[in-house]
Amino acid sequence: MRHLAVFILSASLLLPFAGALGSELVEAGDTFPAFEARDQHDVDYRFDPGTATVLIAFDMATAKLANAVLAEQGAGFLDGHRAVYMANIYGMPRIGRLFAFPKMRKYPHRIILADAKNLLSPFPQKEDHVTVIQLNDSAVIQATLFWNPKKDPLEDFLR
Q1: Residue 10 lies in a domain
Q2: At 60, which CATH number?
Q3: Residue 19: its pLDDT value, please?
Q4: Rounded CA gap, 49 and 47, in Å?
Q5: Residue 91: which domain range?
Q6: 3, 40, 58, 154 — which has fewest CB within 10 A?
């Protein structure tokens, strides 16, 4: 009986970490995981292995800053750099979406909406930064960088 109690106590202490153990972050040398999503205009998007750079904003404040910088660059800027920009909207309340989506539709650049529970879980993140994943032509990750849209020139992060 005592062994059972020790086992249950040990299992309960380790249980919170079980999810973290199974969700490893991607790193250089890994193939970028293929995914499908929709953009701010409700148009389907499928990841293209020819993409050179993936920009990922994990929080709304950072996404707003990144959107402002990207909007200044114009509509074809991301395509010209073979880059895509993703913004995390998973968990955004319905009322928030009513206000956010019309604003997002006004941006000249495409915003891929990360709206699935675990879509962004394989990617590293840093507070107040956009994760920048640089890929080769075969979609193998070459580097992961962190862009601060308040301070850093975007061009330093694109290939």
Answers
A1: no
A2: 3.40.30.10
A3: 36
A4: 7
A5: 27-157
A6: 3
